[in-house]
Design a protein that fits this description.
Elements lengths: L5 H8 L17 E4 L2 E2 H7 L1 E10 L2 E9 L5 E10 L4 E10 L7 E6 L1 E6 L5 E7 L11 E7 L3 E4 L13 E5 L5 E7 L4 E7 L3 E8 L3 E3 L5 E3 L2 E7 L4 H16 L11 E5 L4 H9 L6 E4 L28 H9 L3 E6 L3 E2 L8 H5 L4 E2 L12 E3 L4 H17 L4 E4 L6 H7 L4 E2 L1 H20 L4 E4 L1 H4 L4 H4 L16 H12 L6 E4 L4 H5 L5 E4 L15 H14 L6 E4 L10 E8 L4 E8 L7 E4 L9 E6 L7 E4 H6 L1 E4 L4 E9 L3 H4 L3 H13 L22 E4 L2 E6 L6 E3 L12 E3 L4 E4 L12 E3 L17 E2 L7 H7 L13 E8 L2 E7 L8 E9 L5 E5 L7 E5 L7 E10 L9 E2 L6 E4 L5 H6 L6 E11 L2 E4 L6 E4 L10 E8 L6 E4 L1
Helix pairs in contact: 7-9
């Protein structure tokens, strides 16, 4: 059993408020030379100031400034310490504060430290290949360094995650280590050199040297260093994931990001409405490339206006409709690449060519990628103003930025021999200024960093943006590669998305991620859907809705990374604070093993867990945390994906609401045949706030919306435990009963139960917001409960039943009910003695007032006759409503004189006094101690109020009693 719990480790780590010697508490370890003098000398001799503030609990920000004696050059470093995670990050800036060119800045390194070995004398450097467009995207890599070895890491072409991500974990073989993250979306490098004492790590912008112009500022990449003790690689990565989500991930309205489901569908209201008809409501609606004038090819960029030929009405109305449904809107932009179309006007190329940096081809030819120089303040301001206007005018809430070119050659083209790297540095500063200003201009704006899918995912970028599309290779329907790229990216990018291009279960389950994007049918800008399998599409949507929250938890690989068709690939996400998690296992097409057993991590061994196999519900089961940590067996018969979602049964966090409210909903589901509801997504399978029709507010069930959903049967008494419920919409189902007393539901304002088969109305709730129309509730029950009269729409039994008999023919008459419209009629039943209730006759209309039927029963048997009302289905109620039975009318079979009856009396007769309460035909009814017992025979002049003496004669057995004069 695996016993190392990340929560316990975090508890221990978070108690530390000091840094190890590598990071220290003073000036961060960045280095440089200025006019040939080392920073180790400069920072000790120049004038220094220091200011400290605490922007959040556990966060200490310190700003250091160093000014040379001539007061014309300054160095500023802002360091932020995160004491709870034993981490620090920093940026250094260099500014020429004088009126002439500065001295020469050279050998600038954002980080220069020695990471000590443990006793093993070696270190494993963990990294990955970044979001490259191949099956190797995010492949986890290990470089084992020891002795006098040296290795340099650097991306390709000037995009910070091309071929190598800028995230590294230096792991000591005996446990413990250091995480180092580089925040630079341009060209960086990091050299690791081994010696007898450890590994020297030096990194920063790959090239930056030269003098600064008056007033000019350049900066270093942002560095993040996180130290940890005693953890292995996997658990240290979960420490990193938690740090990123708590402190580094971009906030929206002050809230951390959450897993979400997106839909790529363009400006297409009919396509969106079709999805809504199937209950699919994405978190974000995505319009991709091609909405601007481009000569018929989305690749031609540079005119940032909505193309009136394609979208004559713009995006405003469509986006406003999406936002009203709670769906955020995302639109694709690519400001940096300018590509001239031969058949269309290009605003930036033709009107502002001076802002462009041509690429490696001569003369900036029209068929090349020209770089918009965001280091040019005028160009950057133009883009800021244009994009702000487009987004605010069209209700765009997510800015998706792509970058489909390598800029390094363009930057080199503009460099001069005495100033290298300055063009790149200013471009990166301008790029971040663009983002930061858009966020400032548009409250609540989110940013998606694409860059050919995952090629600019550096640390500073990921503090501002999320990668909604982690690699462009996802466009290929290569399920095994999708699994592998998610596996690799999960170590460093807790919320990275991918697209789904297939409705086949293995394919779409291979694309599940922290940010799912549905692009079924392979179309970007149009939701066609003619050939979609909507049942599968809904299944895909429902499954990701159930499990997406797990992706914000801890990640545990269960197999080694691979794209091999003969092997499995599996992992676990565990969110211990919420008591939920998921295991995803993939048996590839040529894998021979048909089952795997995995020891799960970080569960509560004493808790009960529900394990739901979303791919095969018949394999779901209940178990304990201890059992799952000892081994969960996943059996897959063929190429398929298994999804085992689990949650703690008794945890309010796992359930999403208090256990009493969860149990009340579970009782409702079971009592009303929930397995056969029309829609039951999530019920009893996941947290309550993911259940269809359930609204959870501040951890309590506040609304139920289950109309026309095939609920059948009684609402259980535990329904009264939903004490925060304000509304229950359950109309047009087949509910038969409500709890008698709902006075505990003090928050309830609206109860809509019209069109069911209810036979009672509860007491103790507000009357004005309740609707019980078209039910089978007796009017007297409504009146007793205090509700307005709704008899027009109620099914009630007829009244005033009178019987007459001639031989074996019995005639019954009654007063028809007041509401006789619609289909239906009356059903007549009889009961002989204490025998079963038996149907005698029925009518085809509710307007008739009687019926005759034949009844031949043995002598001396008492007979009770009942009538009920039957109302057929209407537009207001899909059910056939049956009233309660009427009060009985009685008679005795056979006709006998009083004398004959007296003669045949056995010994032991008992004389009883009584008063006649009613006389119908030859039947008299007595009250006092004999109410409801009938008197049969030649009654003569008996009338109501007569006092009589009766003699009791027993019939067969103990019943019925026969009373005669």
């Amino acid at each position: 059993m695996k016993k190392l719990l990340i929560v316990a480790v975090l508890t221990a780590v978070c108690g530390v408020d000091a840094f190890a010697s590598v990071v220290g508490t003073g000036v961060p370890p960045f280095t440089f030379t200025y006019d040939g003098v080392s920073s180790s000398t400069i920072l000790n001799t120049w004038k220094q100031t220091r200011k400290t503030r605490t922007p959040a609990e556990g966060v200490i920000e310190t700003t250091y400034t160093f000014t040379n004696p001539e007061n014309n050059f300054a160095v500023k470093c802002v360091r932020t310490r995160y004491s709870g995670f034993n981490a620090a990050e920093w940026i250094a800036e260099f500014t020429n504060t004088g009126t002439s060119n500065s001295g020469v800045l050279k050998d600038v390194k954002s980080l220069s430290v020695v990471l000590p070995y443990d006793s093993a004398g070696r270190m494993d450097i963990h990294w990955d290949r970044g979001g490259i467009d191949s099956t190797k995207a995010f492949e986890p890599m290990i470089y084992a360094i020891s002795g006098s070895d040296s290795h340099t890491f650097a991306p390709s072409g000037g995009r910070g995650s091309y071929n190598v991500s800028s995230y590294f974990n230096f792991v000591k073989p005996g446990g413990g280590g250091t995480i180092v993250c580089m925040g630079w979306p341009g060209q960086w490098s990091m050299t690791c050199s081994s010696s007898s004492v450890g590994v020297t790590v030096r990194g920063g912008q790959e090239e930056l040297q030269g003098y600064l112009l008056p007033g000019e500022t350049v900066r270093t990449p942002r560095m993040l260093v996180l130290e940890y003790d005693d953890l292995d690689f996997v658990h240290s990565q979960n420490l990193w994931r938690r740090f990123y989500l708590k402190y580094a991930a971009p906030r929206v309205d002050g809230q951390p990001p959450k897993p979400r489901f997106n839909m790529c569908g363009g400006i297409n209201q009919p396509g969106a409405d079709r999805l809504f008809d199937y209950g699919i409501y994405p978190d974000y609606w995505w319009t991709d490339a091609g909405w601007y004038p481009n000569g018929g090819n989305w690749w031609q960029t540079g005119t940032w206006q909505i193309n009136p030929a394609v979208y004559p009405n713009g995006f405003r109305a469509f986006h406003n409709n999406m936002l009203r449904k709670g769906i955020k809107t995302m639109v694709w932009f690519e400001p940096e690449r300018v590509h001239k179309a031969s058949n269309a006007y290009n605003e930036l190329f033709e009107d502002h060519f001076e802002w462009l940096i041509p690429d490696a081809y001569p003369n900036g030819a029209a068929d090349t990628n020209n770089l918009l120089d965001l280091g040019n303040e005028e160009a950057c301001n133009f883009i800021i103003d244009r994009f702000t206007q487009i987004m605010t005018d069209n209700f765009i809430t997510v800015y998706r930025e792509d970058f489909n070119m390598n800029p390094l050659q363009n930057w080199h083209n503009k460099n001069t021999a005495d100033r290298k790297g300055f063009v790149e540095n200013h471009h990166i500063q301008g790029h971040f200024r663009l983002w930061d200003t858009l966020v400032e201009n548009i409250p609540g704006l989110e940013i998606d960093s694409c860059s050919s899918g995952g090629l600019r995912n550096d640390y500073d970028t990921m503090r501002r943006a999320l990668p909604f599309l982690r690699t462009d290779y996802e466009i290929n329907t290569d399920a095994n590669a999708h699994q592998a790229s998610f596996y690799g990216s999960a170590f460093w990018l807790p919320l990275a998305g991918i697209g789904v291009y297939s409705d086949e279960p293995y394919e779409y389950r291979s694309c599940f991620a922290g940010m799912e994007t549905g692009v079924w049918g392979g179309t970007y800008n149009h939701v066609k859907g003619e050939d979609w399998n909507f049942d599968r599409l809904v299944d895909c949507y429902n499954e990701i809705q159930l499990i997406k929250e797990c992706y914000a938890g801890d990640f545990y690989p269960l197999e080694q990374w691979n794209v091999d068709a003969t092997r499995w690939l599996s992992w676990q996400f565990n969110y211990p604070e919420k008591g939920i998690g998921v295991v995803q296992a993939f048996r590839r097409e040529s894998a021979e093993e048909n089952f795997k057993t995995y020891e799960l991590e970080d569960l509560d061994p004493n808790a009960e867990y529900v394990v739901m196999r979303l791919d095969d519900p018949s394999k779901s089961f209940d178990t304990t945390g201890a059992s799952l940590m000892n081994g969960l067996t996943i059996a897959i018969d063929k190429r398929a994906a298994a999804i085992a979602y689990y949650f703690k049964r008794d945890s309010d966090d796992a359930l999403g609401v208090p256990a009493a409210e969860y149990n009340a909903l579970r009782d409702l589901y079971e009592a009303t045949d929930g397995d056969n509801w029309t829609k039951n997504t999530g019920w009893l399978k996941t947290r309550v706030d993911h259940w269809y029709g359930v609204t959870v507010t501040d951890g309590h069930v506040t609304a139920l919306s289950l109309p026309v959903n095939n609920l059948r049967g009684p609402v259980p008494d535990s329904f009264a435990n939903l004490t925060y419920l304000t509304e229950f919409a359950g109309q047009r189902n087949t509910l038969t009963r409500m709890p008698a007393d709902l006075s505990a539901l003090t928050a309830l304002k609206k109860l809509t139960l019209a069109g069911n088969a209810l036979q009672n109305a509860p007491t103790g709730i507000p009357r004005s917001g309740c609707s019980f129309s078209y039910n089978a509730i007796p009017a007297e029950n409504l009146a007793a409960a205090g509700y307005p009269a709704q008899s027009r729409s109620q099914t009630v039994p007829p009244s005033g039943i009178v019987l007459s008999r001639e031989g074996a023919t019995v005639s019954a008459t009654w007063n028809p009910i007041s509401y006789t419209a619609g289909t239906g009629g009356y059903d007549v039943y009889y009961k002989v003695g204490n025998g079963p209730l038996t149907e005698a006759a029925s009518t085809g209309s509710k307007a008739v007032n009687g019926v005759s039927f034949t009844l031949d029963v043995p002598d001396y048997d008492s007979v009770a006759v009942y009538v009920r009302t039957r109302s057929g289905a209407t537009t207001n109620n899909p059910n056939t409503l049956i009233s309660t039975l009427s009060e009985p009318a009685y008679f005795l079979s056979g006709t006998y004189s009083v004398a004959e009856l007296k003669t045949s009396m056995p010994q032991g007769n008992v004389a009883v006094n009584g008063t006649v309460s009613a006389v119908f035909g030859d039947c008299a009814y007595l009250q006092d101690g004999l109410q409801g017992i009938k008197l049969v025979g030649n009654i003569g002049k008996l009338k109501v109020g007569d006092e009589v003496t009766l003699t009791v004669r027993r019939g067969q057995g103990t019943e019925p009693y026969l009373f005669v004069l």
